[in-house]
Write a structure and sequence with these properties.
This protein has helices spanning 2-8, 21-27, 29-46, 50-64, 72-88, 92-108, 114-130, 134-150, 160-172, 176-190, 199-216. With 217 residues, the protein is mainly α. It folds into two domains: 2-113, Serine Threonine Protein Phosphatase 5, Tetratricopeptide repeat (Alpha Horseshoe); 155-217, no CATH class.
């Protein structure tokens, strides 16, 4: 459960390599290099440096491709990580292709980590939303939330990414009251994680203000 909560505290849903330190050391320098690259990528993404995050996530994906027998489900995780930053950089079609590859890998080698599936759903939801596929986006956000609930996560603070994603869908499909509520929930929580200048927080606040203006008409 601790791992799941750590994952959900990432801005932009960047997952972590689920390899404990002892395993990293046992598997040698290649795995250690990947783990170090990944931590740098997550740090850059959480700091809002999406160009650097993309560069580092790509290096992670390339590095694991050179490691024999690297687990397919962990390859899927890293493709999802890269897709998350592509969504943040406004390239959802490219992200969607990676996420579909991740789904295919997970079909061959399922993960035991529910957070990996919820993260995948949320990233898919974001890709669909950015392309105006509202029904598919809403479905993915809802499915990601259901994965968490089925895993026993009940604290609503861990649903802030899906709250923001659904808020955007509701806004764009005219459900302004629902959008307002979801944005308020997401923004209230993310303000406890990042500074006021963080690009994700600023974007959500701008979207929230747009919703409020429409409600006032």
């Amino acid at each position: 459960m601790k791992t799941m909560l750590t994952l959900l505290a990432r801005i932009g849903i960047a997952a972590v390599l689920l390899l404990p330190p002892a395993t990293v050391e046992a598997k040698g320098p290649d795995i250690a290099e990947v783990a170090a690259l990944h931590q740098r990528a997550v740090a850059a993404q959480n700091a809002g440096d999406y160009e650097e995050a993309e560069h580092l996530h790509r290096k992670v994906v390339a590095a694991i491709g050179r490691i024999p027998d690297f687990p397919l489900n962990e390859q899927a995780r890293q493709l999802s990580n890269l897709a998350s930053v592509l969504n943040l950089r406004g390239r959802p079609a490219e992200a969607l292709n990676l996420l579909r590859k991740a789904q295919s890998l997970l079909a061959k080698n399922p993960s035991q980590d529910p957070a990996q599936y919820s993260t995948l759903h949320f990233n898919l939801g974001q890709s669909y939303a950015l392309q105006g596929a509202w029904k598919s986006a809403e479905q993915q956000f809802q499915e990601g939330m259901q994965v968490l609930r089925s895993a026993g996560v009940s604290d609503q603070t861990y649903f802030f990414e899906s709250d923001a994603g659904l808020a955007y869908v509701y806004w764009k499909t005219g459900r302004l009251g629902e959008a307002k509520s979801r944005y308020e929930s997401a923004i209230r929580f993310v303000r406890t994680l990042v500074p006021p200048t963080h690009p994700v927080l600023r974007r959500w606040e701008q979207e929230y203000q747009a919703v409020m203006k429409e409600l006032e008409r």
